């Protein structure tokens, strides 16, 4: 293994290495940019620099992230310079007000948002680069946005939306309560949500061009509600199905965005390694789990290019429990014989690995590959590794030997007060 690493790893020197990656991306329509945590500055900044280059040099049309549609759509309106979208990115980022808010309300995203705003400034609306969230957690927020949007229209769909909203109201915005009721007692809102989505589907194709993206937003909010309803209904069983519901939803939302942006559209997808790295090259497959990277590769083949990220040690922003005060934590040195430790052993510098699918490179065995979530316990480090065949999981891998925590732009107390 060390001999293979020595042969195929090259120094990661930002400008030179990004150029190599851009060449490797070629004509791929889906470029998947991972991260080994949701709180590491370098994962965000390197993705941002690569994204800027792919936007300016290769014409990529939008960034899709592991975030909620409503809050990301607020930021999307800001970076496109819409008249009611605020005067600075910090203001637009206030909509990321639900835990773990630091994932997107951070200095690194603020800087990217200002760059996108400037890049879009002299472009017509149809050519502006967008920023969208494709996750499933925004059940209540998405329902509110649908009702608000339809309330501005002379549309019978408003009654459908209100009926769906009323179905969820008894659960008091408590996802666990809804999941238990829907899963155990059959008292769910699936039918109402499916009917609403059916009515809103593709409405953007028939409205005035200036309202098309808002109509698309209504549909994507309905899709998010449908995905969230299924996710919370299945989550109660504690099996792989809720994970699969979530990743299938993200692919469906992504492909709807690709359709909206036209046949020549190309997208950048920012998600955790566990979503963008092919699940078939990990032990996730043994548990019946699929993910975004696998589903896109199965459907789009060489139109997909996935880049994973990793680190040996440093600091990270995370919480000790869901909803807990986020804090800067130490990331201890990677455990012996993990993927990250092997790369560090070869030399304590940043590295880039490029994988050629025609060669059997670094595919001898499953090796532990660190994955840090929004909830993190460094003292339980062994539980944070996903057995992985690295060369089959990604097309390329960026290794940053020592990393630091990203910088949230609001304190935890500020979010509690919002």
UniProtKB/TrEMBL annotation:
InterPro entries: Emycin_Estase, Hydrolase/PRTase-associated, UCP036794_erythomycin. SUPFAM superfamilies: EreA/ChaN-like. It comes from the Bacteria. This is Erythromycin esterase family protein.
């Amino acid at each position: 293994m060390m001999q293979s690493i020595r042969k195929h790893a090259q120094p990661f020197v930002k400008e030179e290495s990004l150029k190599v990656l851009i060449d490797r991306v070629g004509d791929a329509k889906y470029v998947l940019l991972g991260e080994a945590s949701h709180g590491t500055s370098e994962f965000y900044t390197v993705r941002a620099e690569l994204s800027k280059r792919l936007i300016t040099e290769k014409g990529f049309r939008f960034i899709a992230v592991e975030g909620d549609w409503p809050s990301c759509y607020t930021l999307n309106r800001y970076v496109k310079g819409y008249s009611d979208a605020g005067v600075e990115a910090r203001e637009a980022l206030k909509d990321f007000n639900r835990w773990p808010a630091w994932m997107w309300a951070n200095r690194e995203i603020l800087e990217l948002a200002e760059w996108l705003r400037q890049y879009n400034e002299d472009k017509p609306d149809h050519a502006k680069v967008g920023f969208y969230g494709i996750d499933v957690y925004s059940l209540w927020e998405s329902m509110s946005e649908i009702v608000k949007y339809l309330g501005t229209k002379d549309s019978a769909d408003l009654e459908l939306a209100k009926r769906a909203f009323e179905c969820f109201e008894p659960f008091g915005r408590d996802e666990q309560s809804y999941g238990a009721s829907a899963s155990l007692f059959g008292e769910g809102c699936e039918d109402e949500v499916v009917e609403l989505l059916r009515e809103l589907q593709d409405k953007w194709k028939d409205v005035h061009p200036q309202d098309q993206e808002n109509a698309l937003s209504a549909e994507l909010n309905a899709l998010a509600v449908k995905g969230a309803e299924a996710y919370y209904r299945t989550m109660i069983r504690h099996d792989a199905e809720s994970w699969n519901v979530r990743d299938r939803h993200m692919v469906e939302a992504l492909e709807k965005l690709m359709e909206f942006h036209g046949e020549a559209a190309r997208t950048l997808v920012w998600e955790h390694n566990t979503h963008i790295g092919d699940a078939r090259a990990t032990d996730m497959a043994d548990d019946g789990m699929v993910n975004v990277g696998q589903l896109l590769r199965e459907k789009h083949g060489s139109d997909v290019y996935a880049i994973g990220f990793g680190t040996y040690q440093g600091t990270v922003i995370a919480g000790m429990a869901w909803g807990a005060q986020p804090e800067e934590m130490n990331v201890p040195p990677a455990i012996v014989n993990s993927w990250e430790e092997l790369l560090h052993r070869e030399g304590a510098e940043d590295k880039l690995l490029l994988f050629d699918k025609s060669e059997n490179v670094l595919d001898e065995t499953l090796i532990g590959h660190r994955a840090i979530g929004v909830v993190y316990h460094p003292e339980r480090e062994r539980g944070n590794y996903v057995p992985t065949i690295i060369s089959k999981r990604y097309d390329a891998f960026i290794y940053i030997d020592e990393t630091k925590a990203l910088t949230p732009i609001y304190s935890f107390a500020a979010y509690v007060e919002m």
